[in-house]
């Protein structure tokens, strides 16, 4: 067995703070030998191994913040917060120390929606990576409040096993977007783990390392993340996003053009993601969804949605109802 690959895998998992006891079975030769002749590019095969071999029980163990928060500063900082809202804000800022990831947050009525976007190709297509990040957020809120907080909804393109659904307390939804929704009142519950002394101690170090990393995500990712926050407020035009980013509208247009895209395309992407998820909420009528997505006219929303999805709003909602009924029947 290639000892170098085994060491790289162990080092990578340690870097992420994953508990070794729960995934030791992934490190035996029967699993790793098939990769001996493969080119090891960064950590791409690590995710391939985890996606293929990790069980849902192992995934849940790797998502339990009690197993790793002491070794992962961003989670330690989050648990030192006054409540879940501050915890998620800190984690969104400093999780870049763990991996290139964007966590967009925006208000949705009495809820807070969290959108996860990966900026590297290795995590982007990894079920293990995404579900660990999503479930870790639930675990974080529960550990901080010492209460079994149940999210409003959770979704991704990946399957949520029965054991994962049981842990979450809800069924994961099939979605083009990677999202997690909490009630704001649950996130406002005080953290019993609040620790101002430790936060004051680790904050300078976190800021130092973030600055040292000099992370430059694609401008399209930054624009999408900003739009998720601005659309609910109604001020999400090009100039609004540019002002939020502290640059001119012309500069923003030029940067997007250099990436082969436009502001209009990025806005459509975000509106499509929001619309497809909000339409799955049976408590919202089409007019309400249209407004929340940023349309002043329901007719314009209908037209745009048909262009995005290839089906009408009514057809889309019917499809989701049938899918939900099928899952419940099973």
Task: Give an overview of the whole structure.
The protein is of the alpha+beta class and 330 residues long. The protein folds into three domains: 3-53, no CATH class; 65-198, no CATH class; 218-329, Orthogonal Bundle (Arc Repressor Mutant, subunit A). The chain has helices spanning 3-16, 20-23, 29-32, 44-53, 56-63, 65-68, 73-79, 84-94, 121-124, 127-145, 162-168, 184-187, 196-213, 219-230, 238-245, 249-258, 263-278, 286-293, 298-309, 313-329; strands at residues 101-108, 111-118, 153-156, 173-174, 179-183. It has a five-stranded mixed beta sheet, sandwiched between helices. Helix 11 links the parallel strand 3 (153-156) and strand 4 (173-174). The radius of gyration is 21 Å and the shape is globular. The termini are far apart.
Please give the order of strands in the largest beta sheet: 1-2-5-3-4
Return the structural class: alpha+beta
How many domains, as an integer? 3
Listing every helix as H and every strand as E from the N terminus to the C terminus, the arrangement reads HHHHHHHHEEHHEHEEHHHHHHHHH
Task: Note the total helix count.
Answer: 20
Give the DSSP E fraction (strand runs of 2 or more residues). 5-15%
Count of DSSP E strands?
5
Overall 3D form: globular
Uncertain runs are 17-42
C-alpha Rg (nearest Å): 21 Å
- The level of helicity is 55-70%
Average predicted confidence as pLDDT: 79
Biggest sheet features:
5 strands, mixed
Ends apart, CA distance between termini = 42 Å
Organism: Lactobacillus kimbladii
GO molecular function, one term: DNA-binding transcription factor activity
Pfam family, one: HTH_18
Keywords: DNA-binding, Transcription, Transcription regulation
């Amino acid at each position: 067995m290639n000892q170098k690959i085994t060491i790289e895998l162990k080092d990578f998992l340690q870097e992420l703070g994953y508990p070794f006891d729960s995934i030791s079975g992934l490190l035996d030769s029967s699993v790793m030998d098939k990769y001996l002749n493969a080119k090891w590019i960064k950590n791409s095969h690590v995710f391939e191994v985890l996606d293929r071999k990790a069980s849902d029980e192992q995934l849940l163990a790797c998502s339990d913040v009690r197993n790793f928060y002491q070794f992962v500063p961003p989670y330690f900082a989050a648990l030192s917060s006054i409540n879940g809202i501050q915890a998620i804000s800190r984690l969104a800022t400093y999780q870049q120390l763990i991996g290139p990831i964007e966590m967009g947050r925006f208000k949705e009525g009495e809820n807070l929606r969290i959108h996860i976007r990966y900026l590297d190709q290795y995590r982007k297509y990894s079920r293990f990576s995404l579900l660990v990040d999503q479930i870790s957020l639930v675990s974080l809120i529960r550990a901080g409040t010492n209460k079994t907080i149940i999210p409003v909804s959770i979704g991704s393109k990946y399957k949520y096993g029965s054991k994962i659904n049981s842990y979450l307390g809800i069924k994961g939804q099939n979605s083009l977007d990677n999202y997690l929704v909490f009630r704001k009142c649950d996130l406002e519950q005080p953290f019993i783990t609040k620790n101002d002394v430790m936060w004051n101690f680790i904050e300078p170090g976190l800021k130092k390392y973030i600055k040292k990393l000099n992370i430059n995500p694609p401008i399209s990712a930054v624009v999408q993340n900003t739009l998720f926050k601005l659309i609910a407020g109604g001020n999400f035009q090009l100039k609004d996003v540019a002002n939020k980013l502290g640059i001119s509208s012309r500069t923003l247009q030029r940067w997007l053009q250099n990436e082969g895209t436009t502001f209009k395309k990025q806005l459509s992407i975000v509106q499509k993601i929001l619309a497809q998820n909000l339409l799955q909420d049976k408590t919202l009528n089409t007019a309400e969804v249209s407004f929340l997505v940023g349309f002043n006219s329901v007719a314009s929303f209908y037209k745009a949605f048909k262009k995005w999805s290839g089906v009408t709003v009514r057809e889309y909602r019917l499809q989701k109802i049938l899918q939900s009924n099928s899952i419940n029947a099973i």
